[in-house]
Specification:
six-stranded mixed beta sheet; 525 residues
């Protein structure tokens, strides 16, 4: 019968569930071949297994670099069961077919994620035999099953039981697709890492060859506009705290724009240590605030720009309780995001059936250690850059005016700076008391962004007297600084670096404003 599994080869780096899976295969009469640590783990569990060296008659050598690279293994995998010449060749060589290959690869990504990883460390964790086994089995998918993910073990066993000890054509084909995607992602990660280095292991810059791998999470009804097709993919090795890994608790399917805006909101809110709320509309924060509890943070953020908040994305960096859901229920929101939700909050949110609710953990420090690069498509290619993770603290600020900001003003300046980080350039953000008062985004002129921020604050009935201002890049002229002063701001944070810095600093001194430079720019296009 096509797909019948009589003999299986098991050789896994990730041993999650392998003992239980092997025991289940053995109970179904499958002969088990195995290598190295996998064979030892199975033998220790009293599962009968044939060591690959005993099977081939050729022991492992070169510290395990050569184990399965042998004709008895690969002929057994690659032989077409429907071709008489192949069957005769196996019989003549005394080779029995291998019908199921269960392999996952050396943990290359985990190895290079260690900052202390050397070139030798990385090279030693480049799997050779594993990808060869996987590709061979995938090539011969019409006759051989291949499993690269422990999550598939239960499905494989169920399929065997449903088909009298054989794997169905549909499952073999899907497993083949997963296998080629697995090896492609693995080789892509290797190419990205090694082509960014010199022969002594030192980093020389961006990779000469860049590869991106992702698995389909969701096919979408349409893209940014209804005439565009779209889908969401999760990058290989994505952190659990990344928006692509979020767990949707309720609501309609996420749209392309929902996901993009949710990512902007989540990236912004997770930059704050205090309980915070970020409301995003069309990729820009339209309200951000910190408070002792999430519900109050939401109310303060919403007050910045209630009009723009309509249909927005709301993100929290603390678990959401019932009081917070009750506060949010007063507006129309597309998506609500948080690390967790209380049972009462879940119940209340369920009454708003169109509200999409996403849950995902806050980033660990390790998530931020080596973030994925940013990509932007252009005609015929794409631009790649390292992620913008450069934060600043009070010790990084340089006071450039005669007047120095107070401690309270410094706290507000840093708050405003973190908001401006996630506002489209040109970005101007007025803040006071750990909340936004006015946000000007995406204008061709910085002075226009300044005026728009002030207009929005006025429309919301918020006074800018005593506020602070963040600018994502330097003020090229004093006109923007004058608009800030005219509306009552008392302190400004900006990168500095303009040829007219002296002119802008003089204007700040003239207007009695404190100004600090960060030395860091946060353009966001």
């Amino acid at each position: 019968m096509p797909g019948t599994v009589a003999q299986a080869l098991l050789s896994v780096s990730d041993k999650t569930g392998i003992v239980e899976f092997a025991r289940a295969l053995a109970a179904r009469g499958v002969t088990l071949l195995s290598t190295g640590g996998t064979a030892k783990a199975l033998a220790a569990a009293d599962i009968r297994v044939v060591e690959i060296g005993d099977y081939t008659g050729f022991p492992e050598m070169l510290d395990g670099r050569v184990k399965t690279l042998h004709p008895r293994v690969h002929a057994g995998i690659l032989a077409r069961r429907d071709v008489a010449a192949h069957r005769d060749a196996l019989a003549g060589a005394g080779i029995r077919g291998i019908d199921l290959v269960v392999v996952n690869l050396y943990p290359f990504r985990e190895t290079i994620a260690n900052p202390a990883c050397t070139l030798d460390d990385a090279i030693e964790d480049i799997d050779i035999g594993g990808p060869t086994l996987v590709r061979a089995a995938a090539k011969n998918w019409a006759h051989v099953g291949v499993v690269v993910d422990p999550a598939e073990y239960a499905r494989v066993l169920a399929d065997l039981d449903a088909n009298g000890g054989a794997l169905s054509q549909g499952l073999r084909f899907r497993l083949m697709q997963c296998a080629f995607a697995h090896t492609a992602a693995y080789d892509g990660a290797i190419a990205n890492w090694v082509t960014a280095r010199s022969s002594d292991g030192s980093v020389r810059g961006m990779p000469q060859s860049f590869h991106l791998a992702g698995e389909l999470v969701q096919a979408m009804r349409y893209g940014e506009n209804p005439h565009q097709q779209a889908a969401l993919y999760r990058e290989a090795g994505a952190a659990a705290s990344a928006i692509a890994s979020a767990r949707q608790l309720q609501g309609k399917e996420l749209s392309y724009n929902n996901v993009a805006d949710s990512d902007a909101a989540w990236q912004c809110v997770t930059r704050f240590d205090a309980p915070a709320c970020v409301i995003v509309k069309h990729a820009n924060p339209c309200g951000v605030a910190c408070a002792e509890v999430p519900a109050e943070a939401y109310r303060r953020a919403f007050a910045t720009d209630p009009t723009s908040a309509f249909g927005g994305i709301i993100a929290f960096n603390r678990d959401v309780d019932a009081a917070t859901v009750e506060a949010v229920a007063g507006q129309f929101a597309e998506v609500l995001i948080a690390p967790g939700f209380t049972r009462e909050a879940r119940t209340l949110a369920a009454s708003k059936k169109n509200l999409r609710v996403l849950e995902l953990p806050l980033p660990e420090r390790a998530d931020a250690a080596a973030p994925s690069p940013d990509l932007k498509r252009i005609g015929g290619g794409f631009l790649v850059q390292t992620a913008d993770t450069h934060d600043v603290g009070a010790v990084d600020l340089t006071v450039v005016t005669r007047k120095a900001p107070t401690g309270e003003e410094i706290a507000d300046l840093l708050f405003a700076w973190r908001v401006a980080w996630f506002v489209k350039s040109n970005a101007i953000v007025f803040c006071r008391g750990a909340r936004t008062l006015g946000v000007g985004a995406g204008q061709m002129s910085r002075v226009d962004s300044t005026r728009i921020a002030a207009i929005k604050a006025g429309n919301a009935g918020l006074s800018l007297a005593g506020s602070v201002v963040a600018s994502d890049a330097f003020f090229p002229f004093r006109d923007g600084l004058d608009v800030v002063a005219d509306h009552g701001a008392v302190a400004v944070i900006q990168p500095g670096g303009s040829v007219r810095d002296a002119e802008v600093i003089a204007a700040a001194d003239e207007r009695g404003i404190a100004m600090v430079f960060t030395g860091v720019r946060h353009f966001r296009h």
